[in-house]
Amino acid sequence: MKKNYRIAVLPGDGIGPEIMQEAVKVLTLVGEKTGVTFTCEEARIGGIAIDTDGTPLPEETLKLAKESDAVLLGAVGGPKWDQNPGHLRPETGLLGIRKGLGLFANIRPANMHSSLVDASTLKPEVVSGVDLIVVRELTGGIYFGEKKRYDGPNGEVAEDQCIYNEQEIERIIRVSFDIARKRQKRVVSVDKANVLESSRLWRKVAERVAADYPDVELTHQLVDSCAMQLVRDPKQFDVIVTENMFGDILSDQAAMLTGSIGMLSSASLAAGSFGLFEPVHGSAPDIAGKGIANPLATILSVAMMLRLSLEMDEAADAVEKAVWAVLEAGHRTGDIAADRSKAIGTLEMGQLVRDELNKILN
Ligand SMILES: NC(=O)c1ccc[n+]([C@@H]2O[C@H](COP(=O)([O-])OP(=O)(O)OC[C@H]3O[C@@H](n4cnc5c(N)ncnc54)[C@H](O)[C@@H]3O)[C@@H](O)[C@H]2O)c1
Ligand SMILES: CC(C)[C@H](C(=O)O)[C@@H](O)C(=O)O
Ligand SMILES: [Mg+2]
């Protein structure tokens, strides 16, 4: 563990700055309590960068991220920019920073905290005790394949190419097995091998890698069936590993098992310990500027950063404990409140977490 860390802070758009403010305050408190200095340097990404710099990923943002020990990101996008064809192309914005930093492994845990069972729209007996991780390949597949638009005999044609090579598949499968080894030792590899060639290669590589992990059970599920099983019996899952787009969809679905997408944190890791940490949710334009967004997914992303990139496991545990304590005491933002009239705002939720953290780290 070092005594000084440089953290690139990219609040982004919509609720991004609101939730990021609370996350940075939590990180600052961790610094004060542990004697570690976090130098947080802010930079623009997403819509705000399009407006100010004319590009969603200014060069200095990528440079800052590369020079930092870890990156914290809020959310990007919104109706004003989503039609801009450059905004989410492979080389720009969120996808550009993922590729530019080599963040191939996206880790998205979905744990149902016991005090939040009532926030889920699913039956308590189905969701209580859910504890799974979606390991999503993040820098390949259809997101990054060649895109084309041209005129054909039946009108305009659009193409998105989906490509995976063995090396890309192998490294993400290994990440999932390494994680499973420390958990229930069960990996479900999700694909569409009955239709897609890229999925057939995925399955072949998964089988090959599994031979190196005899202690971990590997099963395969087709993505449509997995989507169904996630809602029917989510407790069957320990680690799900899958390609980029399937992981995007399944992780939002898994988020709802836990009550709200406002609870789900994520880590996007490169080889080694460098990572970018962000909530799974987006910029929530419908609630931006109202001060009601749930900051817990971003605060829990800080915990993931402390554990996975900064070797500060104890501080990570403390942040998580503080979040659970606040929930156990019954405090809720609107997205997780059974009674919305009693919901608290973003700032209040952040303050409550820091109050608990103060007690835990004393
Ligand atoms: N990683 C990212 O930056 C990221 C991820 C997903 C979507 N997006 C972008 O965000 C924009 C909006 O997308 P969307 O509406 O499909 O998804 P979203 O996740 O922003 O919002 C979906 C719903 O969840 C709610 N929600 C999300 N986060 C919340 C929070 N912290 N607290 C309370 N409620 C919350 C929103 O109010 C909305 O009703 C789009 O431009 C999209 O491209 C960005
Ligand atoms: C905004 C979008 C490009 C992004 C993705 O699809 O990866 C988001 O949905 C996510 O899950 O982080
Ligand atoms: Mg998504």
Automatic annotation (TrEMBL):
Binds 1 Mg(2+) or Mn(2+) ion per subunit. Its main location: cytoplasm. GO terms for biological process: L-leucine biosynthetic process. NAD(+) binds at residues 78-91, 282-294. One of its GO terms (molecular function) is magnesium ion binding. Mg(2+) binds at residues 224, 248, 252. The record marks 143, 192 as: Important for catalysis. Substrate binds at residues 98, 108, 136, 224. Residues 6-353 form the Isopropylmalate dehydrogenase-like domain. It is found in: Cytoplasm. Belongs to the isocitrate and isopropylmalate dehydrogenases family. LeuB type 1 subfamily. Homodimer. Catalyzes the oxidation of 3-carboxy-2-hydroxy-4-methylpentanoate (3-isopropylmalate) to 3-carboxy-4-methyl-2-oxopentanoate. The product decarboxylates to 4-methyl-2 oxopentanoate. HAMAP family: LeuB_type1. This is 3-isopropylmalate dehydrogenase.
